[in-house]
Amino acid sequence: MSATGDNPEPWPTRWVARIGARRAELRQAARVTVGCILAFVVYHLFNLPQGYWAVFTVVIVMQGSIGGTLSAAIDRMKGTLLGAAIGGAAAALRPQTPLGLGEALAVSVALTALAAALKPTLKVAPVTAVIMLISPVGGHTGPLEAALLRVVEIFIGSVIGVATSVLVLPARSQSVVIERVQSALAQQALLFERLADDLGLPPERPDRHAENTALRLALGQVDAAMADAARERSSRLSDHQIAEAMPRTLWRVRNDGVAVGRAVAALPESIRPRLGPAAAGLLRAQAGFMRRCAAALARGAVVDRAGKLEALKSFEAVIDALRSARVTQALGFDEAGPVFALAFALESLDRNAGDLADRVDETALGRAEARPQS
C-alpha cells in the first residue's frame, strides 16, 4: 500500500493537529518565557546583587492558570518573609564563628521547618532562612540588608509572574476547572462501564482499587482548580461561573460508585443472572450520562437527560419482581445484604447524577449571563 493510502493526511496537517492539541502547554511555555525575560531585564536595571532569584521565582510561581499563579506567588511571599525574618535575625545575632553559624542554622531551620509543617504554604521558609545564613551575599552586606534584598527579589519575581499570567495569553481558572471536571467524568464513566462488565464475569472479578484511586486524585485536582478560581474571584483578577457545589456533587457520585462496586463484588452468584443485566444496563446508562454532562459542560449547554429515568425504572422493576417472587426472602442475611445495598447505591447514584446535571445546567446559565450582549 502506498504511503498516501497508509496516511492520507499530509504531514503539515498532522503537525498542525498535534500542535493544536498542545495549545495549553505552548501558551504556558510562552508565558513563562516572557515572564523570565521581564524579570531578567528588571534585575539588571536595578542592579540587584542576586536578582536571578526574581527569575527563579517567575519559573516557580507561574502555574497553568491565573488563580494558580496568584496562589503560588502569595505562598512564596509568605514563606520568604518568614524565612528572611528568622534567617536575617539569626545572622545578625549569631557569634561570628563556625560554631555560631551552626547554632544559628539549627535554630533557624527548626523554627521555619516547624512553621512549614504546621502550615504547608510556608514550605519555602526553611530554604530562605538557610540561604540567608550561608549565601555569599550575607558576607558582603549586612544581615538586614540581605533580608530586605531577598524579599525585594522574590516580590519582583512574584509580581512579574502574576502580571504575565494576567496579560500574556491568560488562562482563566474556569477553563482549567472545566477540563479537570471533564477528565474526572470520563474516568467515572469508564469505571461504571467496567463495573457493568463485572456483573457478567465469574466470581474471580478484577480489583477496581486502582481506578478508584485515580478517580480520587482527579477529583482532588478539581478541588485545587476550584480553589484557584475562588482566589481569582476574590482578587478581582477574574471571575468564574462554575457552580460552587460542583466538586461536592462529583465526590458524592464517586462515593456512590464505590458503594456500587462493593455491592457488585459481594452480589451472590445465585442472583446475578436475574439482577445483573438490569444493574449493568443502569450502570452503562449512567456512564453515558456522565459523558453527556462532560459534553454539556464543555459547550456551555444544559444536559440531555433522555433515557435516564427509563434505565432506573427497568432496574426497579426487576427488584420489585424479585420481591414479589420472594426470591430475596429465601436468601440468607449475608446474601440479601448486597442485593439491597446495590439497589440503594444505584438509586442514590441516580439522584446525585441528577444533581450533577443540575450543577452543569447552573454553570451553563451563569456562562450565558456572563457573555457580553451583542
Description:
This protein is an all-alpha fold and 374 residues long. The protein has two domains: 8-167, no CATH class; 173-370, Methane Monooxygenase Hydroxylase, Chain G, domain 1, CATH 1.20.58. Helices cover 78% and strands 0% of the residues. The protein is built from 15 helices and no strands. It has helices at residues 3-6, 11-21, 23-45, 52-61, 66-93, 98-118, 125-134, 137-140, 143-167, 173-198, 209-235, 246-266, 272-299, 308-324, 333-370. α12 runs antiparallel to α15. The radius of gyration is 28 Å and the shape is elongated. Residues 1-5 have low confidence and may be disordered.
What is the CATH topology classification name of the largest domain? Methane Monooxygenase Hydroxylase, Chain G, domain 1
Task: Tell how many strands the DSSP assignment holds.
Answer: 0
> What structural class do the secondary elements suggest?
mainly alpha
Weakly predicted, low-confidence segments? 1-5
Please report the distance between the alpha carbons of the first and last residues: 53 Å
Percent range of helical residues? over 70%
Radius of gyration: 28 Å
Which word captures the global form? elongated
Number of helices, where a helix is a run of at least 4 consecutive DSSP H or I residues: 15
> What's the order of the H and E elements?
HHHHHHHHHHHHHHH
Strand content: under 5%
The CATH architecture of the largest domain: Up-down Bundle
Mean pLDDT: 85
Biggest sheet features:
none
Text of the CATH class of the largest domain: Mainly Alpha
How many domains is the backbone divided into? 2
